[in-house]
Amino acid sequence: ETGVTQSPTHLIKTRGQQVTLRCSSQSGHNTVSWYQQALGQGPQFIFQYYREEENGRGNFPPRFSGLQFPNYSSELNVNALELDDSALYLCASSSSTIHRGPAKNIQYFGAGTRLSVL
Amino acid sequence: AQTVTQSQPEMSVQEAETVTLSCTYDTSESDYYLFWYKQPPSRQMILVIRQEAYKQQNATENRFSVNFQKAAKSFSLKISDSQLGDAAMYFCAHNDMRFGAGTRLTVKP
């Protein structure tokens, strides 16, 4: 167990709906990253938050948005869901001391939320 | 786009034997970290081993070791004395959040 928890574990939505996924970081961690993992593929980086500010973003459209709260927990919001959004969404937390640049610290992953879009 | 490539979608090893998983990457940085993660059926990604590019010595963690060839941009994972619990998806990753497509490792009893 890594101490990173995600909720819910499974979710079914229909095309066009909106969804919010939640992540509770490991104690003492100030950085959260979100990934999308399609079936049979490696994780794709969505974005990262460091001390409540976005600190890097992958090649995902603006309908993917996020928040990090003062307790360093985080949300991933996806609007106007599409069928291709069906995937496992992973949250990872780490402890960073830099604001800019790539994270070079060990990431601790949650078990993910399996999103199915029908 | 810079990539992380795992050319072996599936690998199989006999219990107690040794297996090597391959990874190549592309980067313009001189200092970076590389990681191997394990993802069992439970889905939770677990760090196996980490290598800093500036360190010439290959990282080792118990039965897991890497062969890091910086000039060739190669970062392979060697698992010695394979155990049934090693069966999982293994992902190679660069510290800039890029992951390979993964290698599924099967361990035969």
How would you explain this protein's 3D organization?
The complex is a heterodimer of chains A (118) and B (109). With 118 residues, chain A is mostly beta strands. Helix content of chain A is 0%, strand content 48%. In chain A, the strands form two sheets. In chain A, strands 2, 4, 5, 6, 9, 10 and 11 form a seven-stranded mixed β-sheet that branches. A four-stranded antiparallel β-sheet of chain A has the order 1-3-8-7, with no helix packed on it. In chain A, a hairpin with a 5-residue loop joins strand 7 (64-68) and strand 8. Chain B has strands at residues 4-5, 10-14, 19-21, 24-25, 33-39, 46-52, 60-61, 64-69, 74-79, 88-94, 103-108. By secondary structure, chain B is an all-beta fold. In chain B, strand 8 and strand 9 form a beta hairpin. Chain B contains no helices and eleven strands.
What's the structural blueprint in terms of helices and strands?
The complex is a heterodimer of chains A (about 120) and B (about 110).
Chain A lengths: L4 E3 L2 E4 L5 E6 L6 E7 L6 E7 L2 E5 L6 E5 L5 E5 L8 E8 L13 E2 L3 E5 L1
Parallel strand pairs in A: 2-11
Antiparallel strand pairs in A: 1-3, 3-8, 4-5, 4-9, 5-6, 7-8, 9-10, 9-11
Chain B lengths: L3 E2 L4 E5 L4 E3 L2 E2 L7 E7 L6 E7 L7 E2 L2 E6 L4 E6 L8 E7 L8 E6 L1
Parallel strand pairs in B: 2-11
Antiparallel strand pairs in B: 1-4, 3-9, 5-6, 5-10, 7-8, 8-9, 10-11
Quaternary structure classification: heterodimer
- Evaluate the radius of gyration of chain B: 13 Å
Q: Mean pLDDT of chain B, nearest integer?
A: 93
The overall pLDDT average of chain A reads: 90
Counting H and I runs of at least 4 residues, what is the number of helices of chain A? 0
What would a concise description of this structure say?
The complex is a heterodimer of chains A (118) and B (109). Chain A has 118 residues and is mostly beta strands. Chain A has no helices and 11 strands.
